[in-house]
């Protein structure tokens, strides 16, 4: 939620939610759905919307998904908070009390938040693997358009190995 994001990171309370919500949506689709798989992701979304989320699902959302989403948003939101997109041009935000960051500072912020994003995403995936019996939709895939969880074993004929044979998945790179 907007309140959770603003209360648990350095984004000021006066930041317009219109700048935050597109990044939340993107991070849910890009990172969270990839970690959960489409079936579990959509099941949890439906329960949140219906107000019926409880028990193990609520624990998953509050203790694992929310922190992973928070740091993914902080990693991705830097550009949205730096620029204003208007009908005539794109401009940098500024005020009497601040100046916009330059590219090097922007990269520093991305590099600063990325390890947090990765750590909390890995924590989420480790929890799901350790508790997969509590979440039967976690490794299910029913349709070619669904995204399997990042820990679903591949069933195709192509294997990808990272250099050095580390056994890490491609998701470790993001």
How would you describe what is shown here?
With 174 residues, this protein is mainly α. Helices cover 54% and strands 3% of the residues. The chain contains 6 helices and 2 strands, in the order αααααββα. It has helices at 2-7, 17-36, 38-50, 55-76, 78-82, 103-130, and strands spanning 83-85, 90-92. A two-stranded antiparallel ribbon has the order 1-2. A hairpin with a 4-residue loop joins β1 (83-85) and β2 (90-92). α2 (17-36) crosses α3, α2 crosses α4 and α4 (55-76) packs antiparallel against α6. The radius of gyration is 18 Å and the shape is elongated. The relative contact order is 0.15.
Describe the main β-sheet briefly: 2 strands, antiparallel
Record field, number of beta strands: 2
How many whole angstroms does the radius of gyration measure? 18 Å
Mean pLDDT across residues: 79
Approximately how much beta-strand content do the residues carry?
Answer: under 5%
Number of helices: 6
Q: Between the first and last Cα atoms, what is the distance in angstroms?
A: 24 Å
| Order of helix and strand elements from N to C terminus | HHHHHEEH
Strand order, sheet with most strands: 1-2
Helix content: 40-55%
As residue ranges, the low-confidence spans are 153-174
- Give me the secondary-structure category: mainly alpha
What general form does the structure show? elongated
Q: What oligomeric state is this?
A: single chain
């Amino acid at each position: 939620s907007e309140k959770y994001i603003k209360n648990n990171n350095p984004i000021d309370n006066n930041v317009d939610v219109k700048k935050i919500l597109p990044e939340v949506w993107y991070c849910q689709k890009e990172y969270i759905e990839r970690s959960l798989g489409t079936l579990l992701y959509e099941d949890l979304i439906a329960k949140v919307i219906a107000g019926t989320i409880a028990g193990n699902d609520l624990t998953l959302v509050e203790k694992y998904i929310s922190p992973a989403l928070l740091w993914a948003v902080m990693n991705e939101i830097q550009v949205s908070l730096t620029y204003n997109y208007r009908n005539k041009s794109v401009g940098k935000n500024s005020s009497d009390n601040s100046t916009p960051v330059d590219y090097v500072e922007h990269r520093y912020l991305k590099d600063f938040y990325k390890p947090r994003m990765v750590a909390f995403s890995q924590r989420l995936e480790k929890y799901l693997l350790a508790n997969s019996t509590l979440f039967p939709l976690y490794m299910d895939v029913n349709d070619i358009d669904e995204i399997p969880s990042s820990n679903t074993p591949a069933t195709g004929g192509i294997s990808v190995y990272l250099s050095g044979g580390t056994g890490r998945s491609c998701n470790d790179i993001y």
